[in-house]
């Protein structure tokens, strides 16, 4: 089954561009709200890194999510889109002074701190402003996730977070710092996780940590389990809404949350992944020795995921019903890794056909670059193209 697209409107636009189906986005957000409402003490922050298109951010903000940011630029984008500053969390291993100051100036909800030197700098900068910064520690739980190696983040070998061995010491340090308030623990084990067992492993690890902290009479108000819920890249139409029910139920069944605690989530891909497609046109069909190439006007500069981590995106020829043939679908960039898919079955392709690379709403437009002096792709919503 192919997706449905406003092809006539597409013909008026310059390709490549991103197309966001706002019905899918709104349905996704509505599912999240319904599931979260079952639990009372759950708070979902949207991970802005997945897609910071202002039109997309505005719809997410309307649905009352908070924002998870990893840079000063993302904090600015979130504030511009109207996210309340007291619902902004700020993570990242390398926060620059100006970024910390920005967070302090806006009194954001929490800094997710990833190292001792960072903790000291936040305390120093907060003191200079006469403020008290809320901090949570990002703990590296040494939990693996069944996903691509480049998107696991919770293993001891990854650069993220504070190790479990150092945790007690760092919490003691924070308690001694006058311009910090230690409010919670933060975790994030990776992205595109579909095996709920990985989240169960994280819950078990958090339960152990909480028991140890409780034994030391350390009170944690907020537990933030990050994001990571994956989407079905193979079936963007059949499975346009990720399995939020199982996801939240997993945490509800396995995490021993204390009655006073709030559980925070930072979902990116699962919120915006399925609503977006990269729309491109075929420039040439080229016969190779043993194969044929469909050469698109979109390349790895527009959607880098296949080149960066061999990611799969469903590819559809949305303007052809011709008999299916097999193509290597490639871009125009001067790199051999500029390939969207090899041996892909598509309805017979000719110059000018429109090709949709599906499930590209997350880590698509936001990762676009100007390599080869290319223009950045525009992003349009279905609301605009009626
Ligand atoms: C700290 C943190 N939180 C949340 C996310 C969002 O992850 P996802 O898009 O898989 O939900 C990421 C992604 O890398 C992250 O690093």
From TrEMBL:
<dbReference type="Pfam" id="PF00278">
    <property type="entry name" value="Orn_DAP_Arg_deC"/>
</dbReference>
<comment type="subunit">
    <text>Homodimer.</text>
</comment>
<feature type="binding site">
    <location>
        <position position="309"/>
    </location>
    <ligand>
        <name>substrate</name>
    </ligand>
</feature>
<feature type="binding site">
    <location>
        <position position="335"/>
    </location>
    <ligand>
        <name>substrate</name>
    </ligand>
</feature>
<feature type="binding site">
    <location>
        <position position="228"/>
    </location>
    <ligand>
        <name>pyridoxal 5'-phosphate</name>
    </ligand>
</feature>
<dbReference type="Pfam" id="PF02784">
    <property type="entry name" value="Orn_Arg_deC_N"/>
</dbReference>
<feature type="binding site">
    <location>
        <position position="269"/>
    </location>
    <ligand>
        <name>substrate</name>
    </ligand>
</feature>
<dbReference type="InterPro" id="IPR000183">
    <property type="entry name" value="Orn/DAP/Arg_de-COase"/>
</dbReference>
<feature type="domain" description="Orn/DAP/Arg decarboxylase 2 N-terminal">
    <location>
        <begin position="33"/>
        <end position="272"/>
    </location>
</feature>
<dbReference type="GO" id="GO:0030170">
    <property type="term" value="F:pyridoxal phosphate binding"/>
</dbReference>
<keyword id="KW-0456">Lyase</keyword>
<feature type="binding site">
    <location>
        <begin position="266"/>
        <end position="269"/>
    </location>
    <ligand>
        <name>pyridoxal 5'-phosphate</name>
    </ligand>
</feature>
<keyword id="KW-0028">Amino-acid biosynthesis</keyword>
<dbReference type="GO" id="GO:0008836">
    <property type="term" value="F:diaminopimelate decarboxylase activity"/>
</dbReference>
<dbReference type="InterPro" id="IPR002986">
    <property type="entry name" value="DAP_deCOOHase_LysA"/>
</dbReference>
<feature type="modified residue" description="N6-(pyridoxal phosphate)lysine">
    <location>
        <position position="49"/>
    </location>
</feature>
<dbReference type="InterPro" id="IPR022644">
    <property type="entry name" value="De-COase2_N"/>
</dbReference>
<feature type="binding site">
    <location>
        <position position="363"/>
    </location>
    <ligand>
        <name>substrate</name>
    </ligand>
</feature>
<dbReference type="InterPro" id="IPR029066">
    <property type="entry name" value="PLP-binding_barrel"/>
</dbReference>
<feature type="domain" description="Orn/DAP/Arg decarboxylase 2 C-terminal">
    <location>
        <begin position="17"/>
        <end position="361"/>
    </location>
</feature>
<comment type="similarity">
    <text>Belongs to the Orn/Lys/Arg decarboxylase class-II family. LysA subfamily.</text>
</comment>
<protein>
    <recommendedName>
        <fullName>Diaminopimelate decarboxylase</fullName>
        <ecNumber>4.1.1.20</ecNumber>
    </recommendedName>
</protein>
<keyword id="KW-0663">Pyridoxal phosphate</keyword>
<feature type="binding site">
    <location>
        <position position="305"/>
    </location>
    <ligand>
        <name>substrate</name>
    </ligand>
</feature>
<dbReference type="InterPro" id="IPR009006">
    <property type="entry name" value="Ala_racemase/Decarboxylase_C"/>
</dbReference>
<dbReference type="GO" id="GO:0009089">
    <property type="term" value="P:lysine biosynthetic process via diaminopimelate"/>
</dbReference>
<keyword id="KW-0210">Decarboxylase</keyword>
<feature type="binding site">
    <location>
        <position position="363"/>
    </location>
    <ligand>
        <name>pyridoxal 5'-phosphate</name>
    </ligand>
</feature>
<keyword id="KW-0457">Lysine biosynthesis</keyword>
<comment type="pathway">
    <text>Amino-acid biosynthesis; L-lysine biosynthesis via DAP pathway; L-lysine from DL-2,6-diaminopimelate: step 1/1.</text>
</comment>
<comment type="function">
    <text>Specifically catalyzes the decarboxylation of meso-diaminopimelate (meso-DAP) to L-lysine.</text>
</comment>
<feature type="active site" description="Proton donor">
    <location>
        <position position="334"/>
    </location>
</feature>
<dbReference type="InterPro" id="IPR022643">
    <property type="entry name" value="De-COase2_C"/>
</dbReference>
<dbReference type="InterPro" id="IPR022657">
    <property type="entry name" value="De-COase2_CS"/>
</dbReference>
């Amino acid at each position: 089954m192919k997706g449905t697209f406003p092809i006539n409107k597409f013909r008026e636009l310059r390709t490549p561009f991103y197309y966001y189906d706002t019905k899918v986005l709104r349905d996704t957000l509505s599912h999240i709200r319904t599931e979260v409402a079952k639990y009372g003490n759950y708070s979902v922050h949207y991970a802005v890194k997945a897609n910071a298109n202002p039109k997309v951010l505005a719809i997410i903000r309307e649905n009352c999510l908070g924002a998870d940011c990893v840079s000063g630029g993302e904090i600015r984008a979130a504030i511009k889109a109207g996210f309340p500053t007291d619902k902004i969390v700020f993570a990242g291993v390398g926060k620059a002074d100006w970024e910390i100051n920005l967070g302090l100036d806006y009194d954001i909800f929490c800094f997710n701190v990833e190292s001792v030197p960072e903790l000291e700098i936040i305390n120093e900068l907060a003191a200079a402003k006469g403020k008290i910064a809320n901090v949570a520690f990002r703990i590296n739980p040494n939990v693996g996730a069944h996903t691509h190696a480049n998107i696991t983040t919770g293993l001891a070998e990854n650069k993220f977070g504070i190790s479990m061995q150092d945790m007690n010491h760092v919490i003691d340090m924070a308690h001694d710092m006058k311009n910090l308030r230690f409010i919670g623990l933060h975790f994030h084990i990776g992205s595109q996780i579909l095996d709920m067992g990985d989240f169960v492993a994280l819950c078990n690890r958090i339960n152990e940590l909480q028991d140890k902290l409780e034994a030391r009479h350390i009170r944690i108000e907020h537990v933030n389990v990050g994001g990571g819920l994956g989407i079905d890249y193979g079936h963007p139409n059949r499975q346009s809404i990720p399995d939020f029910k199982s996801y939240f139920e997993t945490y509800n069944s396995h995490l021993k949350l204390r009655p006073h605690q709030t559980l925070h989530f930072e979902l990116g891909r699962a919120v915006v992944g399925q609503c977006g497609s990269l729309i491109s046109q075929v420039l040439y069909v080229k016969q190779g020795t043993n194969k044929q190439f469909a050469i698109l006007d979109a390349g790895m500069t527009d959607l880098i995921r296949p080149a960066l981590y061999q990611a799969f995106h469903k590819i559809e020829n949305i303007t052809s019903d011709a008999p299916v043939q097999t193509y290597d679908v490639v871009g125009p960039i001067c790199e051999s890794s500029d390939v969207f898919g090899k041996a892909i079955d598509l309805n017979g392709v000719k110059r000018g056909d429109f090709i949709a690379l599906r499930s590209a709403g997350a880590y698509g437009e936001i990762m676009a670059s100007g390599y080869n002096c290319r223009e950045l792709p525009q992003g349009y919503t279905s609301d605009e193209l009626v």
